[in-house]
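Hi V.,

You were right to ask for the full record rather than a summary. Here it is.
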Amino acid sequence: MSPLKCFTAMVSALLPLMAAAQKPVEVVDEKIPSANPSFKFPTTENELVPRMPRQAVKPLVVTESDPVDTLDTMSDFVKVVLYGNGTWKYIKTEDFAWDNEIFTKNWDNRNVDPYKISWDKLPSYSAIWLVDSLSNYACPYQGRVNPRGKFGPRRGRRHQGIDLPLSTGTPIYATFNGKVRVSTTMRGYGNVVVIRHENGLETFYGHLSKRKVEAGDWVNAGDVIGLGGSTGRSTGPHLHFETRYNGYAFDPQWLIDFETGVLRHRMFVLKKKYLSQFSNYEQNFDDELKSAEEDAAEEAALKAMRWHIVKSGDTLGKIARNNGTTVGAICRLNGIKSTSTLRIGQKLRVR
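Predicted structure:
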């Protein structure tokens, strides 16, 4: 079948779906997941709302194919994009953001925390709707979180995000639909992109080798927003990824399993008691470098350690002479006395 015939068949298959989407919403065997007795399901097209997915959310499959056409829907803000490989997806246009207070209130293009809300003024909890039938999800980068780059305090210092090791030039994807609030070079972050999403959540992408979006751009989940790198105060190529709400950082792994790329929740409840009063600060990458230096020193010390397994006929003096050290040094390293009885098989540190 020719490419033109394939495309025509694809459009023909989509037309009934688009027509059905423009009919009044019919609710069949639905139960209201709410304690609000005044809640009513939409019954006309003017009340049309996105539906929340019921299954676990896998990352959006990012197609390498170029878009070939765009179809209108009943909403001026929603389009259907057709790709050359026969796939399609819904997208929201940037017009959606024009009249949305989320993208105007507490908005600037420089500050990490434009909200400036004190911890005691935060709500006790916030219900964050992450995805629905029109709002997709894509894993920013699928990989293993560096065990020494997890969220939270490490060596007495705060880490406001997670670190995902990668190769320089690796594509980094927008996690959800949203508007780019920051795209700049910023102190320790290096090349950084900050996206505010429709639900108020913000995601940070730091140490990029290249930024592919500008402040004010509208992006959809799965759009490439930059390339991974090691700019700024960095210990090597990796993605520094943060999730913040009202300016306060929380562990991105609460939302995403980065090894599988799967979104853990469709609706996420963020409780104030789980937020640190210091998590609205900008990440101090000098602290991160100090931690890395201490890690390296600790690893070097571990590699320099030497051990001896006690055998029949061994004495502390003999062990010390054979390893170029002293009895006193062996005793200090192992918390024993020069008069301690040695046991066959006992493991002694000699360096």
